Amino acid sequence: MPMLNRKTLCILLLLIVMVLPGCWSKKELNELAVVMALGVDLHPEGFLVSAQVMDSSQVGSKQKSPSGSLPIITYQSAGKTIPDALQRMLSMAPRMLYLSHLRVMVFGESLARRGVSDALDYISRDHELRNDFFLLVAKGSDAADILQVVTPFENIPASSLFSSILISHKKWAATGKVTLQKFITELERSGSNPILSGVKRQGALSEEAKSVKNVQTVAPNTMLEHAGIAVFKRDRLVGWLEEPSGKTVNYVLNDVASTIGNLSCSEGGTIGFTVYGVNSSIDVRLDADGKPEFKVNLALEANLNAVQCTIDLNQPSTIETITTRLEDEYNRNLTRNIRDIQHQYGSDIFGFGEALHRKYPSLWKEYRQHWEDSFKTVKIGVRSKVAIRRIGSVVQPVKRRMDTR
User: Fold this and answer.
1) Which distant-in-sequence residues (6+ apart) come within 8 Å of 244 by Cβ?
2) Pairing between β-strand 259-264 and β-strand 236-241 as defined by DSSP bridges
3) Cα(249)–Cα(229) distance, rounded to whole angstroms?
4) How do beta strands 134-138 and 96-98 pair?
5) CA-based R_g, the chain, Å
6) Integer CA distances (angstroms), 7 to 11, 13, 120, 130, 200, in order
7) Along the 405 residues of the chain, how does pLDDT read in single tens digits?
8) Which of 386, 154, 356, 159 is nearest to 261 (CA)?
9) Would residue 209 be called left, alpha or beta, if left means φ above 0 and alpha means ψ between -120 and 50 degrees?
């Protein structure tokens, strides 16, 4: 290579290095207060914001703090807007608040019933906030109360809430697992309304509940537990669903990974089963008058996990009978729960309107403006198909084997 070309190349490389920004936006951990959870409540000034901040100097440390303190602290401040309240926290926090590692955001029930759109505007607009954290509603209390309870297993209560959302939704199916992105998508989508998972405090919010003493006993006096599903009509909370109706919502939304159920034996006793495979879809058809009707098609795979009666599992007809009864139970219970939600709340949290929109877009134009009223009276049915795959390593029930001795 000629000398001139080498010199030119070196000059170009130097120029490139000079103009590269490098780590201009770097943030050192010891300069930040990492926010793990946010709580938003109503306040006379506007919003009361609670920020659960991680003390990075204690997280991962093998040596316990001499004072026995927790690696988190919760700051509270009020403001006309959420960023206004967060800015006021800087008068108490010794570091800049860093929101990119947020795990959960909790709305107080009073705020949720008034509407969460103003709070959502900030959290969806701020570039620091990601959209993969979970949203919760504090059932019957303020969000500030939830974020002050010290939880077992996890030193950081926000991490405990995050993990419990995942496990309860995966194994129980009666709660929601809703991120910011999912909530806003459902809020803006025509023909559906969003849901959120609820969380409540079990026990009094005493001074002990706010300290490490709460988890130094075998049975903590105060715990956090998930409290069903919050039903929204647009951005406002309108009611709550308990376990049966909450499971129905997740079944229809095809959002069940695993759950359990029970079926009574004809001669007395109970049969328990585990559902581990679910697939659901919504069909739309028009009746003779041109009105839409909906059918939820539900396919389930299940295993028997408890047989507390004397049925004979060696007989194929017994399994067929259990299968038929399970299908009838699902058809009846899901249809009843859907109808109750239609009549009580009039909120299409299932997405039936969206299904109508996809299949009959021209007809949807007639229903779009008054779908919430129409949803209360549309005909919805359920058709279930159950397949029992396993009955366990012990074929016959223990009660039957005792009777045959």
Assistant:
1) 333, 337
2) unpaired
3) 9
4) unpaired
5) 27
6) 6, 10, 56, 46, 70
7) 455 577 787 777 777 766 565 555 556 666 788 999 999 999 999 999 999 998 766 555 544 444 456 788 999 999 999 999 999 999 998 888 999 899 999 999 999 999 999 999 888 888 888 888 999 999 999 999 999 998 888 878 899 999 999 999 899 999 989 999 999 999 988 889 999 999 999 888 877 877 888 888 888 889 899 999 999 999 999 999 999 999 999 999 999 999 999 999 988 899 999 999 899 999 999 999 999 999 999 999 999 998 998 888 888 999 999 999 999 999 999 999 999 999 999 999 999 999 999 999 999 999 999 999 999 999 999 999 999 999 876 656 655 555 555
8) 386
9) alpha
Whether the CB-CB separation of 196 and 176 falls below 8 Å is answered with yes
Written as six digits, the tokens of 386 are: 């159950």
Sole residue written with tokens 């219970």? 333
For residue 330, which amino acid is it?
Y
Tell me the two tokens of residue 2. 């000629």
Token pair for residue 110?
A: 């009073």
DSSP state of 60: T
| Alpha-carbon gap, residue 148 to 217, rounded angstroms | 18
Q: Kindly report the backbone phi and psi dihedral angles of residue 301, in degrees, each rounded to the nearest multiple of 5, phi listed first.
A: -115, 135
Query: What does pTM read for this prediction?
Result: 0.87
Identity of residue 203: G
Tokens of 394: 């012990």
Spatial separation of the C-alpha atoms in residues 165 and 181, rounded to whole Å: 16
Burial of 357-379, coded b for 16+ CB within 10 Å and e otherwise, reads: beebeebbeebeeebbebbbebe
**What sign results for the dihedral spanned by CA atoms 98, 38, 103, 222?**
positive
Q: What are phi and psi of 253, to 5 degrees?
A: -80, 0
Those residues with Cβ within 8 angstroms of residue 187's Cβ, 6 or more apart along the chain or in another chain: 120, 193, 194, 232, 234, 235
